[in-house]
Design goal:
With about 240 residues, the chain is an alpha+beta fold. It contains six helices and twelve strands.
């Protein structure tokens, strides 16, 4: 999606949440704040640096950086997806013509896990230089993180680990099509390998994103329920 067409594109997300769900807006009001950050090169300085490294202009990336810094720069909150306190610090550092230009450090965590933006606004997550495309937008990251406080209100919890990302994707497809136990997908919180499903009695978080990086991290399903019997029903779904 073009940054200039994003809802609230010209204002910081805490001031103008745009198309974020009411749940995500409440999450930001209660848990997010803004801190100063070093935005690095921008505007004409960035244009000049891009031209020197790549021998051609890239106005799209200049505009994307301006949008990302205006909309998200300095945003900080506790992230369930990254399992860390995150800070949004988008910068563009053209250094190597052999490396595709991106908006880097979009999300920093204080750990090796980070996120970046490609030219079309896709969110890549990465660890130690290895990355995969995961979320369609930065708003989707916020929507995903906003689900964790809601889930934590339920009394019972359970975590299961799956054998492969393929198993996780198959489970997500089953839940999406069959809607067992009244579970429905929270589509605004979806990633390529990250899914939320919710009903009145249970919530499920499926995450295979970190496994897709080739690390020894198995895909997991976290479940929350109003009581133990609801978790038992969820367990049967997972291992049906």
């Amino acid at each position: 999606m073009e940054p200039t067409t994003q809802a609230g594109a010209g204002r910081f997300v805490l001031s103008d949440p745009g198309a974020l769900s009411s749940r995500a807006q409440q999450f930001l009001r209660q848990q997010a704040s803004r801190r100063p950050f070093d935005g690095g090169l921008s505007g004409d300085l960035l244009r000049r640096a891009i031209g020197e490294v790549y021998d051609k202009p890239n106005e799209r990336m200049v505009s994307l950086l301006e949008w990302a810094q205006t909309r998200y720069g300095g945003l900080t909150y506790p992230s369930g997806f990254f399992d860390a306190e995150v800070v949004f610090t988008p910068v563009c550092e053209p250094e190597d013509a052999l490396v595709q230009l991106e908006i880097s450090h979009v999300v920093q965590t204080g750990t090796p896990a980070v996120a970046s933006l490609s030219a079309d606004g896709t969110v890549f997550i990465g660890v130690d230089g290895h990355g995969v495309a995961e979320f369609a937008t930065l708003d989707a990251v916020i929507e995903c993180d906003s689900m964790f406080p809601a889930a934590s209100q339920m009394a019972a919890t359970m975590t299961s680990y799956l054998g492969s990302v393929a198993h996780l994707l198959t489970l997500a497809d089953f839940l999406r099509v069959e809607n067992p136990l009244g579970l429905r997908e929270i589509t605004e919180a979806r990633g390529a390998r990250t899914f939320w499903f919710a009903s009145r009695s249970a919530m499920l978080y499926l995450c295979g994103a970190w496994s897709a990086l080739g690390r020894a991290v198995p895909p997991k399903v976290m479940a929350w329920g109003v009581n133990d019997s609801s978790l038992t029903a969820v367990h049967h779904l997972i291992w049906r």
